[in-house]
TrEMBL record:
This is Large ribosomal subunit protein uL10. The keyword S-adenosyl-L-methionine does not apply. PANTHER family: 39S RIBOSOMAL PROTEIN L10, MITOCHONDRIAL. GO terms for molecular function: large ribosomal subunit rRNA binding; structural constituent of ribosome.
């Protein structure tokens, strides 16, 4: 069997993995210990992110003619690929946070929703909160004015009840004759 025939299924697997991806990150993982790599993989898996090591030449073939072709420039040396289909910022967030403790881990580049970013751009994206957190912030912002309005109405109603009670408790004044 020819080498090309052996590599074709791997190229197909890479193509299928990145086909509907919202983001793909290229990460230099050299220097990570086995324990660190295992922990990183666990965190990424829990977030629904695919994290794999592929040969650069196979990735180049798989991304040829796709929106991820811009990553070709960063495909040198040992690389791992973090791919997310659901949350576009999850791989960058998790890897950047993990890289604070594991200094050997380095983000090289990434494509998020069709836009190519270098290492600095990916660090900026890593600071964007996740989808769930953004939705909860939005919901909180929408509920805040309604909750404040309800609180004011309640205070007005309580104040009105208090003035009614005060009027009933005070004896009626009789005109001085």
């Amino acid at each position: 069997m020819a080498k090309v025939e052996l590599k074709q299924p791997i190229v197909q697997e890479i193509s299928e993995t990145i086909k509907d991806a919202q983001s793909v990150l290229v990460v230099d993982y050299s220097g990570l210990t086995v324990a660190e790599d295992t922990e990183l993989r666990k965190q990424l898996r829990e977030a629904g992110v695919t994290y794999k090591v592929y040969k650069n030449t196979l990735v180049k073939r798989a991304i040829e003619g796709t929106e991820f072709e811009g990553l070709n420039e960063s495909l040198e040396g040992p690389n791992a690929f973090a791919i997310s289909k659901d949350d576009a910022t999850a791989p960058a967030r998790i890897i950047a946070k993990f890289a604070k403790t594991a200094k050997a881990l380095e983000i090289k580049a990434g494509i998020v929703e069709g836009t190519l970013y270098d290492a600095e751009g990916m660090k900026a994206i890593s600071e964007i909160p996740g989808r769930d957190e953004l939705l909860s912030r939005l919901l909180g912002s929408l509920q805040s004015p309604i909750a404040n309005f309800a609180r004011v109405i309640k205070q007005i109603a309580e104040k009105g009840d208090a003035s009614d009670v005060a009027e009933e408790a005070a004896p009626a004044e009789t005109p001085a004759e």
